[in-house]
Amino acid sequence: MQFPTWLKPGLIGAGVGAIALAIVGFSYGGWVTGGSAQDMALKQSNTAVAAALMPYCVERAGGADADTVTVMTALKAATTYSRKGIVEKAGWATPLGAEKPNTELAQACQLKLAEAF
What we know:
117 residues; mainly alpha
């Protein structure tokens, strides 16, 4: 069986074109893999949850009991990097029904509380 002489260069050109299209698409065209899309969706949903629960965290921080005053004093004295842990330990970043604190909520809450002082 004989193949036309143009078939080999045509197939090589199609292969090189497909590779170039994939490189340009993933680098500049905004294409992402399924795993990357899931990671981006998870980050966006965590950000949305933190934004929705922000008033809850700030309200819990605005209490007048002795624990709140102690935690707020510790927040004022703490460095920026340790404030998130203080908010998590105080339980202000733990949504109702959850067993562990939401780290995005803790970060957003400590930033909002830091604006007050």
